[in-house]
């Protein structure tokens, strides 16, 4: 297929560059020849119909697929132009320290609010209490949760509402200063008010990190993202500034998806 995905040049510095990426689940070819840059300090949304490969693509960025046998990557994802995070010599655990992830459903551990966030530091061998307190407060503030939990840090995380739990998971993902945070439909299990507060967070978070988010909601992509990538049947069909992709799509398939004709 000839793919015309060359919208006006994106001028931001690339945080990551995906080059000729293919991915296979056993013999199933799930991602096909993907080339894309992830602009630094911005929100990039991955959209496309169910099964097109959005989650598969997202999971390549923190080597989640390594956890299952039979999965295979080809091609590269360059971080800061110097490390191919798919390189055989690169330790996936190191990659996950630089690139963290927030999942569809809030998944706090059966621990206190404090210990949930502390986890991200403890796995890195940190146990200086003063430093941990500072970092945990900072992560909870950035995640817009501090005021709601500062007097109950030792309570179980399960006492929090769904939206608060998701903000706690965001704090856990942020506490160790990752460079990129991956979000896999982070609001799909939340009500509209909790969704709005997570969406609001995105615009402040991008000052600290680069964000890649899978969303089923085109409205959400339009509201929160700076750049949008449209995928279809394992291919990247179109990528550009969100306003360009939504207002003047270059491809018929993108236009059909955005206008609700496919999906
Ligand atoms: N573990 C797996 N083994 C084999 N095939 C898989 C596996 N996970 C996903 N797939 C297939 O890979 C393709 C892409 O799936 P993926 O979950 O990435 O799509 P998606 O765009 O995120 O879909 P959705 O929007 O429904 O979540 C689909 O055809 C899916 O059936």
Describe this structure in words.
It holds the Pfam family ABC_tran. InterPro entries: AAA+_ATPase, ABC_transporter-like_ATP-bd, ABC_transporter-like_CS, P-loop_NTPase, PstB-like. This is Phosphate ABC transporter ATP-binding protein. By secondary structure, the protein is an alpha/beta fold. It contains 10 helices and 10 strands. The strands form 2 sheets. The protein has a 6-stranded mixed β-sheet, with helices on both faces. Strands 2-1-4-5 form a 4-stranded antiparallel β-sheet, covered by helices on one side. The mean pLDDT is 93. It binds adenosine-5'-triphosphate. The site of adenosine-5'-triphosphate (ATP) has 12 residues, from strand 2 and helix 1.
- Which ligands are bound? adenosine-5'-triphosphate
pLDDT average, as an integer? 93
Overall, the morphology is globular
Tally the beta strands: 10
What percent of residues adopt helix (DSSP H or I)?
A: 25-40%
State the distance separating the first and last CA atoms: 19 Å
Tell me what portion of residues adopts beta-strand conformation.
Answer: 25-35%
Unreliable runs, pLDDT <50, ≥5 residues?
none
* Widest sheet: strand ordering: 6-7-8-3-9-10
Number of helices: 10
The secondary-structure class comes to alpha/beta
How do the helices and strands follow one another from N- to C-terminus? EEEHEEHEHHHHEHEHEEHH
> What value does the Rg take, in angstroms?
18 Å
Main sheet makeup: 6 strands, mixed
